[in-house]
Write a structure and sequence with these properties.
Rossmann fold; two-stranded antiparallel sheet
Length: 315
């Protein structure tokens, strides 16, 4: 439906969570457009050092023999972390995304912003992880040998990492997420879903983002004190092209996507959440994964679910 600029764009978590508690859809469930079956697959994970940049990386994936995906290659989802949020705090979210048929890749990327060293995602992570996934897919020593669809990459991001992802989708080198003049957006990149992500800087308004018709979902917490729903909505309205969707999770703050509130090392959100942390992380993971399945795999069941939960703008 078309977005009414005067209408509040909320999808309340009490509705979403009540549905979510019934089940976690599996790869095969969603492929059959069934969103009510119980989960029977197992999500595994392992940690590995990316040989291309030295980043310690967690990888989450379905147990192929249980999920009926032995003969399938799975698309991969790169999570670009929030500022100084360690990768270990995204376990529930990453597990949920993986349970929907994605290889979820969560690196700890260290870089320098101005004079501060820390965990700050960069646009170039996109190309480096793509090349890393090609290596993992080709290696006979890899647990994911010949299991990754390296031609299909999606982005999932939180806060700072979400903003870096949006500029990567636009294909522009934007400081401080990119140093230099050019950024090459890989052809494998197909769409993205982001939490607590805004493009409003300390000065001025929200710039227009040219997504070149690449599908984008923005999910916000209603109690986010660092990237407010109003700022998220403004960012959503300034994404140039459809399809796009915007959903607000009632009761979640800026760290609704992480395993604990205000992870150590990250800037704290002064607002306390009123939704359980595990529920919010799983719900956000579910919504992001179903949005991505809609456009990566042409999943009509996922599309219907998302359309009922958020404001979906289509051509």
């Amino acid at each position: 439906m078309r977005v009414d600029p005067n209408k509040e764009l909320y999808a309340y978590a009490d509705i979403i969570v009540s549905n979510f508690n019934k089940s976690i859809e599996t790869f095969s469930d969603i492929a059959n457009n069934d969103t009510e079956k119980s989960a029977f697959t197992t999500v595994y994970n392992y940690s590995i050092i990316n040989p291309l940049n030295g980043d310690l990386t967690d990888i989450y994936y379905l147990h192929f023999s249980d999920s009926g995906t032995n003969d399938r290659k799975l698309p991969f989802a790169l999570l670009l972390q929030g500022a100084n949020v360690d990768k270990s705090f995204y376990k529930e979210f990453a597990k949920t995304v993986a349970s929907y048929g994605f290889v979820a890749v969560v690196p700890n990327h260290k870089s320098t912003v101005l004079t501060e060293n820390g965990l700050y995602a960069e646009e170039e992570d996109v190309n480096e992880i793509l090349e890393f996934m090609k290596l993992e897919n080709a290696s006979t020593f890899s647990l994911l040998n010949e299991k990754i669809d390296t031609r299909t990459m999606v982005l999932i991001g939180h806060s700072y990492g979400g903003a870096a992802s949006l500029y990567a989708i636009q294909g522009t080198c934007q400081f401080p997420f990119c140093i230099g003049f050019n950024f090459h957006r890989p052809e494998a990149l197909t769409c993205g879903a982001f939490y607590g992500t805004i493009l409003k800087g300390p000065i001025g308004g929200v710039p227009e983002l040219n997504n070149y018709k690449m599908p984008i979902a923005l999910v916000q917490g209603s109690l986010d004190g660092m990237a407010t729903p109003a700022e998220g909505r403004e960012t959503f309205l300034n994404v140039k092209d459809s399809p796009k969707t915007y959903i607000v999770i009632e009761g979640a703050n800026h760290y609704g996507i992480t395993d604990i509130n205000n992870p150590p090392g990250a800037k704290p959100d002064k607002n306390n959440p009123t939704i359980a942390q595990k529920e919010s992380a799983e719900t956000i993971g579910k919504l992001c994964a179903l949005f991505l399945r809609t456009y990566v795999l042409g999943d009509d069941g996922a599309r219907t679910y998302i359309q009922n939960k958020g404001d979906l703008v289509v051509s």
